[in-house]
């Protein structure tokens, strides 16, 4: 087991429905510590850059439009195996496939509007944290 950090976003469908607190509670109850957090609204250029890995996918434009449609809450989470643990707490990308008790099963509206983002690997976690936070903002 290793203490890790991962990057998380409470997505627009969730901030719009005032679910930020409920989602943070699910992350904390799942054993993760929120060591940095801020509410921001992305520009389209920032959303496109953040999701550039998906630029060739058919859902890219819709995803970027969605991510700028309302404020988001960006977070750094810390805990044992935080990257994998966070993915477990989030549940599968499509809420229809997500396990009971996961954030996406409980709160997501659809495959696109699925309430939360989480990094998928150590390299992307480090990149995504650095995209949104300065080192001084991480208070572990
Ligand atoms: O977010 P996650 O890592 O689970 O999934 P992804 O494959 O990295 O896709 C990023 C995001 O694109 C998803 O969370 C969905 O919001 C969206 N997406 C979509 O709208 N339609 C798909 N077929 C796949 C993903
Ligand atoms: Mg992903």
Automatic annotation (TrEMBL):
<feature type="binding site">
    <location>
        <position position="93"/>
    </location>
    <ligand>
        <name>ATP</name>
    </ligand>
</feature>
<feature type="binding site">
    <location>
        <position position="11"/>
    </location>
    <ligand>
        <name>ATP</name>
    </ligand>
</feature>
<keyword id="KW-0963">Cytoplasm</keyword>
<feature type="binding site">
    <location>
        <position position="104"/>
    </location>
    <ligand>
        <name>ATP</name>
    </ligand>
</feature>
<dbReference type="GO" id="GO:0006241">
    <property type="term" value="P:CTP biosynthetic process"/>
</dbReference>
<dbReference type="GO" id="GO:0006228">
    <property type="term" value="P:UTP biosynthetic process"/>
</dbReference>
<keyword id="KW-0460">Magnesium</keyword>
<protein>
    <recommendedName>
        <fullName>Nucleoside diphosphate kinase</fullName>
        <ecNumber>2.7.4.6</ecNumber>
    </recommendedName>
</protein>
<keyword id="KW-0479">Metal-binding</keyword>
<keyword id="KW-0418">Kinase</keyword>
<feature type="binding site">
    <location>
        <position position="87"/>
    </location>
    <ligand>
        <name>ATP</name>
    </ligand>
</feature>
<dbReference type="InterPro" id="IPR023005">
    <property type="entry name" value="Nucleoside_diP_kinase_AS"/>
</dbReference>
<keyword id="KW-0597">Phosphoprotein</keyword>
<comment type="similarity">
    <text>Belongs to the NDK family.</text>
</comment>
<dbReference type="InterPro" id="IPR001564">
    <property type="entry name" value="Nucleoside_diP_kinase"/>
</dbReference>
<comment type="subunit">
    <text>Homotetramer.</text>
</comment>
<dbReference type="GO" id="GO:0005737">
    <property type="term" value="C:cytoplasm"/>
</dbReference>
<comment type="function">
    <text>Major role in the synthesis of nucleoside triphosphates other than ATP. The ATP gamma phosphate is transferred to the NDP beta phosphate via a ping-pong mechanism, using a phosphorylated active-site intermediate.</text>
</comment>
<feature type="binding site">
    <location>
        <position position="114"/>
    </location>
    <ligand>
        <name>ATP</name>
    </ligand>
</feature>
<dbReference type="Pfam" id="PF00334">
    <property type="entry name" value="NDK"/>
</dbReference>
<feature type="domain" description="Nucleoside diphosphate kinase-like">
    <location>
        <begin position="3"/>
        <end position="140"/>
    </location>
</feature>
<dbReference type="GO" id="GO:0046872">
    <property type="term" value="F:metal ion binding"/>
</dbReference>
<keyword id="KW-0808">Transferase</keyword>
<keyword id="KW-0547">Nucleotide-binding</keyword>
<dbReference type="InterPro" id="IPR036850">
    <property type="entry name" value="NDK-like_dom_sf"/>
</dbReference>
<dbReference type="InterPro" id="IPR034907">
    <property type="entry name" value="NDK-like_dom"/>
</dbReference>
<feature type="binding site">
    <location>
        <position position="59"/>
    </location>
    <ligand>
        <name>ATP</name>
    </ligand>
</feature>
<dbReference type="GO" id="GO:0006183">
    <property type="term" value="P:GTP biosynthetic process"/>
</dbReference>
<dbReference type="GO" id="GO:0004550">
    <property type="term" value="F:nucleoside diphosphate kinase activity"/>
</dbReference>
<keyword id="KW-0546">Nucleotide metabolism</keyword>
<feature type="active site" description="Pros-phosphohistidine intermediate">
    <location>
        <position position="117"/>
    </location>
</feature>
<keyword id="KW-0067">ATP-binding</keyword>
<dbReference type="GO" id="GO:0005524">
    <property type="term" value="F:ATP binding"/>
</dbReference>
């Amino acid at each position: 087991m290793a203490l890790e950090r991962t990057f998380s976003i409470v997505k627009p469908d969730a901030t719009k429905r005032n679910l930020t607190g409920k989602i943070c509670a699910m992350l904390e109850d799942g054993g993760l510590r929120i060591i940095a957090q801020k509410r921001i609204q992305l520009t389209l250029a920032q959303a496109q850059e953040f999701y550039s890995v998906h630029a060739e996918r058919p859902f890219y434009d819709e995803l970027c439009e969605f991510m700028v449609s309302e404020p988001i809450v960006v977070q750094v989470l810390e805990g044992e195996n935080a990257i994998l643990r966070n993915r477990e707490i989030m549940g599968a990308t499509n809420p229809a496939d997500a396990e009971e008790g996961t954030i996406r099963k409980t709160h997501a509206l659809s495959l696109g509007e699925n309430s939360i983002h989480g990094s998928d690997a150590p390299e992307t976690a480090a990149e995504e944290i650095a995209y949104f936070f300065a080192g001084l903002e991480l208070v572990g």
